[in-house]
C-alpha cells in the first residue's frame, strides 16, 4: 500500500503543476489575441480553436462584419467543420476582442505540386 501512495503523490503534483502551466499559457494567449488588431484576432485564433490537425489543412482567409471565412480543401471537410462551428466559435470568442458571429467555410481545392506552375519553355 505504501508503494502505491508514493507512486500516486508525485503524479498528483505533476498533474497540478501541468494544470497551472496550462492556465498560465491560456491567459498569455488570450491577452495576446485581445491586443491584436480587431480584424486579425479571429484569424490568429483559428488554429488555436480548431487544433493543429485541422489547421494544417485549412486557413483563415479574412474576417469582416462578424464573419470569419475559412478555406477548406473539399466539400467533405466543409460539412464536417460546419458541424463543429459552434465549438470553434465559442473558443474564438473566448480569446478575441471582436465577436465572431459565424464561420463561413469556403471550398478551395489544394493545388498539387505541378498545378499552377508556368511553363518556362519557349
Quick structural summary:
The chain has about 120 residues and is of the alpha+beta class.
- Assign an overall shape: globular
Q: What's the total count of β strands?
A: 3
Proportion of strand residues: 5-15%
H/I helix tally: 4
**Main sheet: strand order:** 1-2-3
Mean of all residue-level pLDDT scores: 81
Kindly, what is the distance between the CA atoms of the first and last residues, rounded to a whole number of angstroms? Answer: 81 Å
Count of folded domains: 1
Q: What would you call the structural class?
A: alpha+beta
Order of helices and strands: HHHEEHE
Tell me which CATH architecture applies here. 2-Layer Sandwich
State the helicity in percent bands.
Answer: 55-70%
Characterize the largest beta sheet: strand count, sense, and whether it forms a barrel.
3 strands, mixed
| Whole-angstrom Rg | 20 Å
Weakly predicted, low-confidence segments: 1-9, 116-122
Text of the CATH class: Alpha Beta
How does this structure look, described?
There is one protein chain. The protein is α+β, with helices and mostly antiparallel strands and 122 residues long. It has a single domain (2-107), classed as GMP Synthetase, Chain A, domain 3 (2-Layer Sandwich), CATH 3.30.300. The chain is 57% helix and 15% strand. It has four helices and three strands; from the N terminus they run αααββαβ. The protein has helices at 2-35, 41-50, 52-55, 75-95; strands at residues 59-64, 67-72, 102-107. It has a three-stranded mixed sheet, covered by helices on one side. A hairpin with a 2-residue loop joins strand 1 and strand 2 (67-72). The model is unreliable at 1-9 and 116-122 (pLDDT under 50).
